[in-house]
Amino acid sequence: MVFASSLFSQDFQLARLHYGGGGDWYANPSSLPNLINFVNQETTLKLDDTEARVKLSDGNLYNFPFLYLTGHGNIKFTSDEVYRLRDYLTQGGFLHADDNYGLDESFRREMKRVFPNKEWVELPATHPIFNTKFSFPNGLPKIHEHDGKRPQALGLFHEGKLVVLYTYESDLGDGWEDLEVHKDGETKHLAALKMGVNILMYCFMP
After folding, report:
1. b/e string for 107-121 if b means 16 or more Cβ within 10 A?
2. Is residue 184 part of a domain?
3. How far apart are CA 149 and CA 177, in angstroms?
4. Could you tell me if residue 10 is inside a domain?
5. Three-state DSSP state, 66
6. In a 10 Å sphere around its CB, with 0-12 CB exposed, 13-18 middle and 19+ buried, how is residue 59 labelled?
7. Is the pLDDT of residue 64 over 50?
8. 16: which strand partners?
9. What confidence score (pLDDT) does residue 11 get?
């Protein structure tokens, strides 16, 4: 499998992961459209105007170099999906999982099935993902409050490369949504969008 060698010369789609287990994988419907619009305005990345929706079992999975996962409920992968996700990630794909409050336990459980020997590593505020285009000197921003925990950017690495980013207790997706949905304010809305840009720029800058 070969992902596109230049993501700056052609449009590509961000893909929302449709997972099983009962969780609302479709949560925050305005989030990716708003992020896509912001990315296309602020960067040289060329994103298709619409998000794709893909299952791990789909034949076109490898057409999408970036998967986005969110929701509030349970996540459950089949054995075949565990294999497919492991292959996708070790062959050059990237997964950004954004905790929307409620998926943490099941997501960590399922990722342990994908990578039994890997442990989550917290990315420090000095990591380049926090300074690819916009500066976040304190690391991952806190966008939407749930229970007072601090936000964490957690990563899984393969051969030294970040292949899974888990944004925990930040809720970037809430921040990407239309302002009137969660009412977190313009400042947090913009911070979330800027962090989304940084994630994508980090993944795809040559």
Report:
1. bbebbeebbeeeebe
2. yes
3. 21
4. no
5. strand
6. exposed
7. yes
8. 53, 68
9. 64
Q: 30: which 2 tokens?
A: 């305005």
d(CA 45, CA 48): 10
Q: What is the pLDDT of residue 2?
A: 39
**The token pair that represents 11 in the structure block:** 């449009």
Tens digit of each residue's pLDDT (9 = 90 or more) over 105-151: 999 999 999 999 999 999 999 999 999 999 999 999 999 887 889 99
Specify the CATH number for the domain of residue 58.
3.40.50.12140
In a domain, 27, yes or no: yes
Structure tokens at 50: 């619409």
Query: Is residue 3 in a domain?
Result: no
Q: What are phi and psi of 142, to 5 degrees?
A: -90, 115
Instruction: Report the alpha-carbon distance of residue 98 to residue 24 in Å, rounded.
Output: 13
Amino acid at 31: S
Which residue, among 61, 59, 19, 68, has the nearest Cα to 39 in the 3D structure?
68
With beta carbons less than 8 A apart as the criterion, state whether 44 and 10 touch. Answer: no
Q: For the full predicted model, state whether its pTM sits above 0.90.
A: yes
CA 166, CA 109: separation in Å to the nearest integer?
13
pLDDT-derived band at 177, boundaries 50, 70, 90:
very high
Share of the chain above pLDDT 70, in %: 94
Tokens matching residue 89: 């990630």
